[in-house]
Amino acid sequence: MTPLWTPDGPDLVVEADNAHVLPLLPDQAFQVVYLDPPFNTGRRQSRTPLRTTRSASGHRIGFAGRSYDVVKGATTSYDDDFADYWAFLEPRLEQARRLLAPTGTLYLHLDYREVHYAKVLLDALFGRDHFLNEIVWAYDYGARTKRRWPAKHDTILVYVKDPARYHFDAEAVDREPYLAPGLVTPEKAARGKLPTDVWWHTIVSPTGREKTGYPTQKPLGILRRIVAASSRPGDWVLDFFAGSGTTGAAAAELGRRFVCVDSNPDAIAVMRRRFADAGVPAAFVTPGPEAAPASAAPDEARAERARHVAHLRRAVEVSRTSRAHGNTPFGALLVGPDGGVLLEQENIEITERVCTGHAEATLAARASQLYDKEFLWRCTLYTTAEPCAMCSGAIYWANIGRVVYAMTERRLLELTGVHEQNPTFDLPCRTVFGAGQKAIEVLGPFGEVEDEAATVHEGYW
Ligand SMILES: C[S@@+](CC[C@H](N)C(=O)[O-])C[C@H]1O[C@@H](n2cnc3c(N)ncnc32)[C@H](O)[C@@H]1O
Ligand SMILES: [Zn+2]
C-alpha cells in the first residue's frame, strides 16, 4: 500500500477531517506545524474521535510528565464552551507534537478570548520550558467600539519540540522600520530592526491582490516570517487547518515543502486555484478508508508502557540483589528525562543499620546530592513496590516529578502480613502527594510486572 506522504513526494493538499489524516503521517516528519483552528464560537466542534495517551492510572500524561489532568480539570471547569473546544483541540495538538521534528516548532494561532486558557493547558501539556513565545499580531481594520478598547489583535503561541535543539534563525526574517529612526545610525535605520514578538501587519485586504475570497484567510506576511525563522529550505511544513492554504503558499515561496489539510471542500477549491495560479505543482488527494497508518498513536502509547515495564523489571532485579545482600527485597531506579538510568538503589536497612534505609528514600537522598531540583522534576523514580509514606515524603522533598511502581502498598501488606521488619502503612502514595503542593505524577500498579515483583518476596516474610 502506498503511503499518503513521503519525504521525497510532492507537496500535498488533503481533503479530509484532520483526525483521519494525522495518524497516517509518520513521527517527526515536519519542521514547522502552523495551526489556525476555527475559533471557539460557542458551538460544538466536530467531535471525530482521536485517541489521547493515558497512563496506567487512567490519567492523561502531559508530555512534561506532570499531572496535566489536574491543570485541565481546573482550567476547563470555568467555561463549558472552552472545555468542549479543548476536547476538540487536545488530541490534534498531541498529534502535532508527535509529527514535529526534534528541531521543530509549533505555532498555534488563537483568538484573544481563548488564548489564556490555552496557554495554561499547553504549558502543562508540553512543559513550560518548551514555551518559546507569545506573538501578538496587531492589525488595524474594521469598526471600533467605544465601549472598551477595540480588540485588534490575534495571538500566536509558540512551542518547541525540544528546548535544547529547536531551529530559530532571526536573521532569515524580514526586518522592520525603527519607530524612531532618528535615534539610531543611518545605516541601522536603513537596515531596519529585527522584529519583536509584536507584529504589526495589515489583515488581508478585501480588495488586495492577496485575497482568495476565503473568509478567515491570514496574511502571507505572517506565515512567511514563521516559515523563514523556524525552518530551512527543503524542510516540510504542515498546516492541518489550512483554509485558503496561506501556509502552503508561504512555504512554496521560500523553497520549503508543505502538507495542507482541510475538511471543507470550499477550502480545497480555493487552494486548487491559488496553487495553480502560483505555479505550485501540489498533489490533491482524498484518503480512502483503506489508508494505512504510518505510525498510529496507540503504538506510541504501547511503546511508552513497554519502556515503563522494562525499567520496572530492572528494579525487580535490584530488589533481588537487595535480598541476596541481606536486606529486605526492595529496589528502585532513577531515570533521567531522556530515559537513561541514572541511579540504582537497593534497600540498606539491615546491613547498614539505617532505619530509614528504604530503597526509594535512600535513592531520593542520593539523587538530591547529585542533581538540582529543576532537573529532578523531569526525572522518574521506578520502584518495585509503591512508596510508603516516608519514601513518598522523601520523593516529594527531592522534587522528583514522577513515580512509577509495579505493585501496590496494599499488595505488599498482604505479602508481609504483620511482620515486625516491615509494619508498613496502609496509605497510597497518591494520598500523600495529594496532600502536598506539587503535582507529582504517579503511574502504577503495572500488572505486567506485579507478579515478578511479588515473587522476590516469596519465603522472605
Ligand atoms: C480559521 S480557518 C484557517 C484559515 C487559514 N489559516 C488561511 O490562511 O486561510 C480554519 C480551517 O479549519 C478547517 N477545519 C475545521 N475543522 C477541521 C477538521 N476537523 N479537519 C480539517 N479541517 C478543519 C476549516 O474548514 C477552516 O478552513
Ligand atoms: Zn519506604
Explain what the structure shows.
With 461 residues, the chain is α/β, with parallel strands linked by helices. The chain contains 15 helices and 14 strands. The chain is elongated, with a radius of gyration of 26 Å. Mean pLDDT is 88; it is low at 43-47. The structure holds S-adenosylmethionine and zinc ion (ZN). Zinc ion (ZN) binds next to helix 10 and helix 12.
Q: Topology as H/E string? A: EHEHHEHEEHEHEHEHEHEEHHEHEHHEH
* Unique ligands: S-adenosylmethionine, zinc ion
Largest sheet: 9 strands, mixed
Structural class by sheet pairing and helices: alpha/beta
Q: Could you tell me the number of beta strands?
A: 14
Radius of gyration: 26 Å
Mean pLDDT: 88
Beta-strand level of the residues, as a percent range?
A: 15-25%
Q: Count the DSSP helices.
A: 15
* Low-pLDDT residue spans: 43-47
* Approximate helicity band: 25-40%
For the record, give the distance between the C-alpha atoms at the N and C termini, rounded to a whole number.
57 Å
How would the blueprint of this fold be written?
Blueprint: E1 12-15, H1 18-21, E2 30-35, H2 68-76, H3 80-99, E3 100-110, H4 115-126, E4 131-138, E5 153-160, H5 186-191, E6 198-200, H6 220-230, E7 236-239, H7 246-253, E8 257-262, H8 265-277, E9 283-285, H9 297-324, E10 331-335, E11 341-346, H10 359-370, H11 373-376, E12 380-385, H12 389-398, E13 402-407, H13 409-416, H14 429-434, E14 441-443, H15 447-455
Parallel strand pairs: 1-8, 1-9, 2-3, 2-7, 4-6, 7-8, 12-13, 13-14
Antiparallel strand pairs: 3-5, 4-5, 10-11, 10-12
